[in-house]
Amino acid sequence: MSSKSLPSIDICEIRPRTGRHTAIDVGSFPKNERSDVYVPMYERATGNRMSVPFIVARGAKDGPVLGITAALHGNELNGIRIIHHVLRNLDLSKLSGTLLCVPIVNIPGFNAGSRYFTDGLDLNTIFPGKSDGQPAEQYARAFASSFLPSIDCLLDLHTASEGRLNTFYVRTDWLDERTRELAICADPSIILHSPKHGGGTLRNAARRRGIPAITIEAGNPSVFQGKMVIEGETAVLNIMVLLGMLKGVVNSSSRPVICDSSKWLRTTGGGILETTFKLGERVEKKQLLAVTRDAFDRKLQEYYAPSDGIVIGKAAYPVAIPGTRFCHLGSIGEPKLLKPKKRQTK
Ligand SMILES: [Zn+2]
């Protein structure tokens, strides 16, 4: 029996056993080469290290470091394949700068097929984490300290959460010129203005360090979707052109619909849910969106659009209890800067 031998993968010892995590030194890796390393991040109950896979793909020429993360929610898989495809097809001799990719950020969640960290917390609500905090907070802190200081720009790849379906869309701060440009170059069908300065997302932790960052939401959880992977790969390559890392032109196929906000519509009763709209559909105020029926097929309730909008995401699971999210509705329109209120003079 013969098997093709796999290339060796280094363990990158970038921190002492106890104490602070230091950032990965991208400049210490060879140019015009891809280096695959496991970075020790956290300790298991058995006392041995839990490591996170980092890929340092350095081009032949100098340039920015583009950070790309996936599976921060452990069951959101399309981003892993987007990273793999970009790297498979990349000619490093033509690259100016470096891709620093982390295809699986949440190792325990990925192993368990779960969105969450071991302790049940959502990592993407607690960045930049705490060195003396809860388990997920310490993991988030270790990851942020190892990764964020090394990058100039961040693309954080996600999908819908369990039981929901997403279009290919981007969350960004539309009012920030740098992140607006990144979002447009990603060429999604929808761009959702999502500033959330106080949120604990990795994107906001990057922004607090002055690193422009966007979140790319590519389809559905727990599956690989070819179309989403192709769209994601195009997004990454376009952004590399924008940043001057690759020569070429931005490959734009659609004009994204800009949403200044969005809200999830929820059921107010239980029942078997039947939706009457499609992902990406523009809906009008008072349009019928969903119907619930009981176990005898009797109609219970109808749900109508509260306003005009575009469908960003929807429920996949057709069983509702009161409060079930069934339609993620974007409000179409460019966000505007709020003017400061004039002081009243007496
Ligand atoms: Zn996610």
Name the features.
2 domains; OB fold (Dihydrolipoamide Acetyltransferase, E2P); four-stranded antiparallel β-sheet; alpha/beta; Aminopeptidase; globular; binds zinc ion; 346 residues
Mean pLDDT: 92
Number of strands: 18
> What sort of overall outline do the alpha carbons produce when their principal axes are compared?
globular
CATH C-level name of the largest domain: Alpha Beta
Helix residue percentage: 10-25%
Q: Tell me which ligands are bound.
A: zinc ion
> Strand content of the residues, in percent?
25-35%
| Annotated CATH topology of the largest domain | Aminopeptidase
- List unreliable stretches of 5+ residues: none
The total tally of domains equals 2
Tell me the number of helical segments per DSSP (H or I, 4 or more residues long). 6
First-residue to last-residue Cα separation:
91 Å
Architecture (CATH level 2) name of the largest domain: 3-Layer(aba) Sandwich
Main β sheet profile: 14 strands, mixed
- Classification by helices and strands: alpha/beta
Strand/helix succession: EEEEHEHHEEEHEHEHEEEEEEEE
Within CATH, the superfamily of the largest domain carries the name: Zn peptidases
Rounded Rg: 22 Å
Secondary structure blueprint with pairings:
Layout: E1 10-11, E2 33-43, E3 49-58, E4 61-69, H1 78-88, E5 96-102, H2 107-112, H3 135-147, E6 153-158, E7 164-166, E8 168-172, H4 177-185, E9 190-193, H5 202-208, E10 213-218, H6 226-242, E11 257-266, E12 271-275, E13 282-283, E14 288-293, E15 299-304, E16 309-315, E17 319-320, E18 325-332
Parallel strand pairs: 1-2, 4-5, 4-6, 6-10, 8-9, 9-11
Antiparallel strand pairs: 2-3, 3-5, 7-16, 8-10, 11-18, 12-14, 12-17, 13-16, 14-15, 16-18
Helix pairs in contact: 1-6
Zinc ion is lined by residues 73, 76, 158.
